[in-house]
Every structure is written in C-alpha cells, then in structure tokens.
UniProtKB/TrEMBL annotation:
Belongs to the class-I pyridoxal-phosphate-dependent aminotransferase family. It comes from Bradyrhizobium septentrionale. Pfam families: Aminotran_1_2. This is Aminotransferase. Keywords: Aminotransferase, Pyridoxal phosphate, Transferase. Gene3D superfamilies: Aspartate Aminotransferase, domain 1, Type I PLP-dependent aspartate aminotransferase-like (Major domain). Its EC number is 2.6.1.-. GO terms for molecular function: transaminase activity.
Amino acid sequence: MNATPILSPRMSGIKASPASVLRRRARELRAAGREIIELSSGNLDFPTPDHVIAAAHQAARRGETRYTDVDGTPELKRAVQAALLRDHQLDYEPNEIVITNGSTQALFNALLATLAPEDEVIVPAPYWAPYLDQVRLAGGMPVIVPCAQNNGFRLRAEDLQAAISPRTRWIVVNNPVNPSGALYSPEDLAEIAAILMRHPDVWVLADGLYEHIVFNGAPAPTLAEIEPRLKPRTLTVSGLAKSYAMMGWRIGYAAGPAALIREMITIQSQTTSGASSISQAAAIAALDSAQDVLAERAAILRARRDRFSELVNGCSGLSCTPPEATFYLLVSCAGVIGKRASDGKLIATDRDFSSYLLEQADLVVFPGEDFGLSPYIRVSFANPSSTIEEAAKRLKRACEALQ
Ligand code: PMP
C-alpha cells in the first residue's frame, strides 16, 4: 500500500515547476523511443568553459571538499563583489552579499525572510513561473500585472502604480525577461524607479539572471544602478547559470542591505548550509577570467535568434518579434486558436497547441498559460543550428496540418 502523507496547508495550490514537468515528460517520451526536440528547455547547449571545469577539478584535488562558510567562500564573495562593480558600477561590501544554490534559492530566501500572510508581491507577466509559487510558499500573495506585446512585454509605469497597495512588499523586476526576451533600457528602469520613489515601503527583487545574454553589447542594466536611492531597498540577484552555461553547478548570489542578507544567511544555515564548495571554486574562475566568452556566445545566439524567428514567422498562424535578449522567442499563436487537428481535436488554448505539438510533431514547447500570458508559446533557440532547422520544419508542417 502506498501511504499518502498529510500535507501542510502551505502546499495547497503549489505545483511542481512547469519547466521540471516538461523536462520529465521529454525524458519519458525519449525513453519510449520518440525523437523529441526540447524547445522548452532553460538549458543552454554550450558547454561550461574549459578553464571553469579545470578550476573545479583543481579545487577538488586540493581538498576543497568541505563545508564552506554558509554565505559562500570569501574568495567567491570577493569575485561577485568585483563583478557587480565591473558590470553595474554597484559597490557592495562582503556582508551585503550571499552565495546561494542557484538564484532560485536567493529569491526564495528573501521572500521567506520578509513576507507575512497576505503580503503582496507584484509580478509582471509574462513571468518566470516559480516566482508565483515561491511567494505563496512564503505565505504571500502574488499580484500579477500583464505586460502587453504592444509595449514590448515591458511593464508600464502606470500599470505598476495601479498595482501598488498598502500590502505591497516587493516588486519583481526581471531584466532581461524570461520568457519574453524583453530588455528594459536605463530609461525604462528610470520610469519604474520614479514610481517606486513615491512608495518607500516597496522593495525591489531585481533578477538579472540573463544579464549577459543580450544582443546589443552591454550587460542589461539593473535597478539599483539606475536609481542609487533605491539601492537600500533593492536585492540585486543574479547567478552563473545562463551567463557561463553553468546551469547544473547551481551557483547564484544576492547583494543587498546587510540586515536582509543576514536573515537570508540564517535561513540558509538552517536549510542547505550553503552552496557546493567545488561549484564555488568554479564560479570564481568564471567571474575572474577574461569575459570574451560572453560576447562570443551572445553572437552565436544572435545568429540563431535571427534564423529561428524568420522560420517561425513563416509558419501559418504564428508570429514573433526577435527579442533583444535571452535565448527564447515568445511566439503569438493567436492564428492557430480555433483551428482543428486532423483527428478533429480543437486547439482552443495555447496549452492545447503545446499538447498538439508534442503529440503530432515531437516538439516540447512552453504554453503561455504557464507564464501568465496567452495565447503564446515560448520556444528556445539555445539549440544547435541543425536542431533549430529541424524543429522549424516540424513546426511549419504541424501548423499547415491544422484546419
Ligand atoms: N530567474 C529567472 C528569470 C530564470 O529564468 C531562472 C531559471 N531559468 C532563475 C531565476 C533560476 O535560475 P538558477 O537557480 O539556475 O540560477
């Protein structure tokens, strides 16, 4: 007999993250012999740079295999401090920095440390899905603010203003944005900052995980750099996952007011004891070495973006604008909604369309419903060119087969 545990009320409405569900589904289908292409993945196809792997190996051989300080090794904190200064002209002291198991943990620790029941967190949509359940797990309530395509999927200052209530504790400002690939310019952020200056109790979770996957050269700006007066109530979060193709190494970080960082470290001391020693050594090598790899890889991704968006725009019923950052296309599928598959099944939603693509075209894509904006699908171009060409062929065929 399989026993079912009695669950905490905290779990009500909490689901496995959509990305993890899709990853599992793709693995199952592959195991069943299907030639699945994962356009849903947040993994880059690039390897972690060689010198980073070498640094990890050397650290392990040197015996750096013990627990580190909970808040991260002093050497990695120093490397993060230098990177924030180099990339954003942001000056943080070591006691204002914490190293975490991926930026996921930085975000969650901050929410857990600060939210009381019914506290609100403003999340612009489309969003990275885990923001919502992290807020709920921490006892708060997400307040979703839609960001329309005709404004480049960016938050408008007036919509932010309208969403702020006496219960608002945080606003999430993700730049560049997963899943839309939108990039907030310094001017865009200044407009958001101007609203926030009128609301001194609202704090900012600035998530810059994709800051180096930008196609115009400079790293994406972050709020504390644009409006220094917001720095005392901003948590600047980032990580190594996307910039250096180190998704599985699980290194993220947060920089912010010492009093908040201290509470986040307390939570970390009681939950994970901190990040992996070997991964931290690797992260130092990534942050401290020449950064040429970032521009080289961004150029490759840019070429793939151009090719994939051209092919996607050639599929009947689909349309997208090439994004300024990230490795995702947010594709409107409004033109296929209401059509039917050859077996008569109606495509009524983007989730139906995603299921259809999985069943009929062996393509895994993210439905817009999972990131709060429909009818869209998110497809990744962090795939080799040959995969992108094959995926586009399947997509085109699948769209043509709809009536
Ligand atoms: N923020 C955003 C916007 C993301 O897309 C992701 C992962 N895809 C994360 C945070 C978390 O990444 P990690 O924990 O690997 O640093």
